[in-house]
Design a protein that fits this description.
- The chain is built from two helices and six strands; from the N terminus they run E-H-E-E-E-E-H-E.
- By secondary structure, the chain is α+β, with helices and mostly antiparallel strands.
- It has a single domain, classed as Alpha-Beta Plaits (2-Layer Sandwich).
- A four-stranded antiparallel sheet has the order 2-5-1-6, with helices on one face. A two-stranded antiparallel sheet has the order 3-4.
- Helix 1 packs antiparallel against helix 2.
- InterPro entries: Dimeric_a/b-barrel.
- This is Transcription initiation protein.
- It comes from Luteimonas granuli.
Length: about 110
């Protein structure tokens, strides 16, 4: 089994104001189905009200993220699944519920983790 990251950047969610309640409801239904199926690991959204900091190996803190990288925002779900095909199917369900395409990535396996 592998862990898959299903995510979207905040700008991808272009939803009319009158549809937000349905998006929240539909996305929660998919998450509850993933929990019931035993594949849900965790999920949520990046709190954009809390700015990122860079922490060095010495513990020094600098405000902001990497200046050359795009901002990390939006929502994400991590599922543990048996195949990439299964991951694509769950990503499609989440895309339908959220009304936006989802990026799909697999976490590399580290036997020490």
């Amino acid at each position: 089994m592998a862990k898959y990251l299903i995510s979207f950047p905040g700008a991808a969610m272009v939803v009319p104001d009158d549809e937000w309640e349905a998006v929240v409801r539909d996305s929660h239904v998919v998450i509850e189905e993933a929990k019931a199926a035993g594949v849900y690991v965790f999920g949520g959204g990046i709190d954009e009200g809390v700015p990122p900091v860079l922490v060095s190996a010495t513990g020094a803190i600098a405000q902001g993220g990497y200046p050359w990288a795009p901002p990390l925002n939006g929502g994400f779900t991590v599922l543990e699944l048996t195949s990439r095909g299964e991951a694509v199917a769950w990503a499609a369900r989440i895309a339908k519920a959220c009304r936006c395409d989802q990026e799909l990535r697999v976490f590399g396996y580290d036997p020490q983790s």
